[in-house]
Amino acid sequence: MNNQQQSSDVLRLDENMRIPQPGDSGLEWYSPLAEPFYIAGFGWLTEKQQYRRLPANPAWVLPEAVDHLANCTAGGQIRFTTNASSLSIKVKLSGAANMYHMPATGQCGFDCYIGEPGEQFYCSTTRYDAKQTEYESVMFTDLERAYRSITLNFPLYQGVQEVWIGLDPSAQIAPPPAYDNSEKIIFYGTSITQGGCATRPGMAYPNILSRRVNREFLNLGFSGNGKGEPELAHIIAEIPDPACLVLDYEANCVSTESLQTTLPEFIRIYRNKHPYTPILVISCITYAKERYNEALRLEKEERKGVQLRTVELLRENGDANIYFYDGSTLLGEQAHESTVDGVHPTDLGFLLMADGITPVLQEILE
Description:
single chain; 366 residues; alpha/beta; 11 helices; 21% strand; globular
């Protein structure tokens, strides 16, 4: 082996980066689809018990790409309480990791948070061979036996066909802590909304917000294909008990003219079903190339103006429950250091986004 091969063989040289091999642990395995587990983030789960973000047989025809992306499980969560000392997870994916700019841990992995609402802290991420579509991974082991609230976040950019929770045989399971109420916070948008390119699921900005606001969150971000189609407005309007609808889809608009058409119509359709539900319109975050491309910067300023004027006009006409947030401020002075490719946020970028949106969302909900 030459020096170059030796230096690049990190898994051989650093035991902390090796993938642990699951042994005969004697765990008992549970389906999270059964009580007392609670599956959050899938608005139509009861239809066919599928981990899918849109209805399997919608009344409105979905764009083909949106129909496919709805099988990505972004925003899904498994919530429960247990006194388990050990927890593992078995997963069967729809496909293997295949993205050049997003780690397999974010695209196809689960991560684990422990704690009560508002006090959840990261514990672990699944570790597995990224070439595989089925894996078993230890989330924690040998903890002191005590009751803990567990949240497992689903993969952001892959489908999950099956998932099983393994607990030590002496473990007891109870329901998760209750939400503040049954109303749901719905995010509709783009690849950024979906979670590209977080290193692990819990760092997508809607998931960060879900740890700060004790409500169920639905992530309806569709990578490259959240374009404000009226069909999606009709389908999203079917979701019962909405607490707030967040529209963050500017980045997928093919033109300013398209945004001028789709945004008022999307809001009109939704308002027909939910006349008083708060709606928050967020314009696009700053792209790295705006510093060097004046035309791009001006185009984004124009689109931001379209969204601001749409909201102002609706408010002038009596809609007091619609709001605008200037997304270009979210990354602040660190915008140039907060993306993986000039567009899609890193974990730092998502944290900055969540920090900016949190007080706005809390004020709207109050």
